[in-house]
């Protein structure tokens, strides 16, 4: 199979979907610039900050992409390139795009509130509490996962003699400093976006060069873990315009550059896909259903995206049209395109049934894409460093965004201590809730749980991460469906993905629980307990939603 068929096919299908299905969703959900966005109505200079759509697109895309659309397709390639490609394309258009776009619009219509608040308003307060606890635990998993990924990527290994980690780590620290400067110039000195972006990209290239030639930051894995924990605490509590937004925006140009270079290289080299279309239904003890749909998350549908859409993005949107569709739907399609590039990279390197793959997903991706880039003369060693840097930069954006959204979620959980009339509840639990609603306490609790998971051996918890994330997507689709129904609209565009994602994730959780309770070699009972807890929370929320809507339908009939 020629890689250009997959690449060009993906481009055409995604463009058609954006201008047809995306526009149909925008019309159905009644996007209208007469609706003043929460960023304007509730502007506070801290979290609610009206921003240019190009800036928000960069922040949003960087946050949702992370390492997922690279890692997922490479891990799922063991089943063959065809199942992965179909899930990426169809999932991005009909599931992930609807999920992300719907989460953003529902949040815009509810004062930029989180999915948990939307569930409370459209289903019941009980379901909000269940969802927020589920989301907060999942975000802590994200913090643990991406802290570990970033620390190991940036770490310097003197025994190995490789400077790639130190080069990427040094450049990333320079990015953070650059973000502070960019944010200050844009929001305090009111510098124009065009000139700020031009200078920012120039200095971004300078940071890459300095990191490449002068990799002075040579920390161990544990050293980077400590540094990253300090960074994400700051990213959570500082004004969004000062660090989080500008860093994500500037880093998005890394991804644009990497994608542009990879696409150009594929057009020049047009490598053949040597991986078989379908290898086997069972690979290393895992079956194609449900594991392909769990492994490829960010490149098709990911629950984390709903937390970004309703957590940070909805608080910055300047206007509904065309911003919401471009950011909510367009970002997901671009991420799906990135997943196709990753699939082409692994499809070129792998042979037949998937043999010949060595190294981590980022190493496989870097090896493949750096070879594509040699087509226009880029040194393969420099290409590998650049791709590794881009990968780690986007893992870092997911990490800092997850921490901030975790803070929001804990604050919402703690804020549930008020009575209907606005007065504060009394008692020890209410006092603890108000304490946890503090910005700094909520941040430390989120980071603290992530650190506990990391110290306890996060590698053992990793198998549950994909299922937790995808089940979160099902719960977010439940919230969007409830909002649509309350608005008097039919919602088949969310109900079909909702049913499918519940089937996929509950099946995966059942298999994980059974495996880890079996007593076989490698079984890990705490993993089974976590799986049971997640499944119970999700099913409880689904049952509560069915009961509430059943009562409402019955009342409507009797009236």
Blueprint (SSEs and pairs):
Elements: H1 3-19, H2 21-28, H3 38-41, H4 53-65, H5 68-76, H6 81-108, H7 115-122, H8 125-154, H9 164-187, H10 193-213, H11 221-237, H12 244-269, E1 282-283, E2 286-287, H13 288-295, H14 303-311, H15 323-349, H16 361-373, H17 380-414, H18 428-436, H19 439-455, H20 458-486, H21 492-517, H22 525-558
Antiparallel strand pairs: 1-2
Helix pairs in contact: 1-2, 1-15, 4-12, 4-15, 4-17, 5-15, 5-16, 6-14, 6-15, 6-20, 7-8, 7-20, 8-11, 8-17, 8-19, 8-20, 8-22, 9-10, 9-12, 9-17, 11-17, 11-19, 12-16, 12-17, 13-21, 14-17, 14-20, 15-16, 16-17, 17-18, 17-19, 20-21, 20-22, 21-22
Summarize the entry for a quick read:
This protein has 559 residues and is an all-alpha fold. The chain has helices at 3-19, 21-28, 38-41, 53-65, 68-76, 81-108, 115-122, 125-154, 164-187, 193-213, 221-237, 244-269, 288-295, 303-311, 323-349, 361-373, 380-414, 428-436, 439-455, 458-486, 492-517, 525-558; strands at 282-283, 286-287.
- The Rg value, from CA coordinates, equals 23 Å
| β-sheet strand percentage | under 5%
Mean pLDDT level? 86
Helix content: over 70%
C-alpha end-to-end distance: 61 Å
Describe this structure in words.
The chain is mainly α and 559 residues long. The chain is 74% helix and 1% strand. The chain is built from 22 helices and two strands. Strands 1-2 form a two-stranded antiparallel sheet. Helix 1 (3-19) packs parallel to helix 2 and helix 5 (68-76) crosses helix 15. The longest helix has 35 residues, at 380-414.
């Amino acid at each position: 199979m020629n890689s250009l068929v997959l690449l060009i096919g993906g481009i055409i299908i995604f463009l058609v979907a954006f201008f047809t299905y995306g526009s149909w969703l925008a019309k159905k959900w009644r996007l209208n610039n007469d609706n003043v966005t929460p960023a304007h109505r509730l502007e506070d200079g801290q979290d609610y900050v009206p921003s240019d759509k190009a800036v928000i697109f960069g922040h949003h895309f960087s946050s949702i992409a992370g390492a997922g659309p690279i890692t997922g397709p490479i891990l799922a390639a063991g089943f063959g390139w065809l199942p992965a490609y179909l899930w990426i394309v169809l999932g991005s258009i009909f599931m992930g795009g609807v999920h992300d776009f719907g989460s953003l619009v529902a949040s815009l219509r509810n004062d930029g509130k989180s999915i948990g608040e939307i569930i409370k308003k459209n289903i019941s307060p009980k379901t909000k509490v269940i969802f927020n606890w589920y989301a907060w635990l999942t975000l802590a998993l994200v913090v643990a996962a991406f802290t570990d990924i970033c620390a190991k990527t940036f770490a310097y290994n003197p025994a190995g003699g490789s400077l790639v980690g130190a080069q990427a780590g040094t450049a990333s620290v320079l990015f953070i400093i650059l973000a502070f400067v960019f944010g200050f110039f844009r929001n305090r000195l009111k510098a124009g976006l065009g000139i700020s972006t031009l200078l920012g990209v120039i200095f971004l290239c300078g940071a890459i060069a300095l990191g490449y030639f002068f990799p002075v930051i040579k920390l161990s894995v544990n050293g980077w873990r400590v540094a990253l924990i300090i960074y994400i605490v700051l990213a959570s509590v500082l004004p969004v315009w000062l660090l989080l937004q500008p860093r994500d925006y500037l880093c998005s140009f890394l991804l644009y550059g990497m994608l542009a270079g990879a696409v150009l290289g594929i057009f020049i080299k047009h490598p053949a896909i040597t991986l078989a279309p379908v290898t086997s239904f069972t690979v290393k003890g895992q079956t194609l259903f449900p594991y392909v749909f769990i492994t490829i998350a960010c490149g098709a549908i990911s629950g984390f995206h709903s937390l970004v859409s309703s957590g940070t993005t909805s608080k910055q949107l300047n206007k509904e049209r065309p911003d919401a569709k471009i950011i909510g739907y367009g970002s997901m399609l671009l991420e799906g395109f990135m997943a196709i590039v990753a699939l082409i990279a692994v499809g070129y390197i792998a042979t037949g049934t998937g043999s010949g793959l060595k190294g981590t997903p980022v190493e496989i991706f870097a090896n493949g894409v750096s070879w594509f880039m040699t087509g226009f003369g880029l040194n393969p060693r420099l290409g590998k460093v650049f791709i590794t840097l881009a990968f780690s930069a986007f893992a870092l954006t997911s990490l800092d965004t997850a921490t901030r959204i975790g803070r929001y979620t804990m604050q919402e959980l703690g804020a549930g201590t008020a009575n209907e009339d606005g007065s504060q509840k009394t008692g020890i639990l209410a006092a603890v809730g108000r304490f946890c609603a503090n910005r700094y306490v909520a941040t430390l609790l989120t980071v603290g749980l992530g650190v506990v998971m990391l110290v306890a051996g996060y590698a053992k918890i990793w198998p549950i991460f994909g299922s937790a994330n995808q089940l979160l997507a099902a719960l977010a689709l439940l919230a969007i469906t409830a909002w649509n129904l309350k608005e008097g609209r039919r919602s088949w565009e969310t109900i079909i993905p909702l049913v499918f994602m519940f089937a996929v994730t509950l099946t995966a959780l059942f298999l994980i629980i059974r495996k880890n309770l079996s007593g076989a070699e490698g079984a890990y009972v705490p993993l089974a307990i976590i799986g049971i807890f997640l499944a119970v929370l999700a099913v409880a929320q689904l049952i509560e939603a069915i009961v509430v809507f059943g009562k409402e339908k019955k009342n409507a009939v009797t009236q």
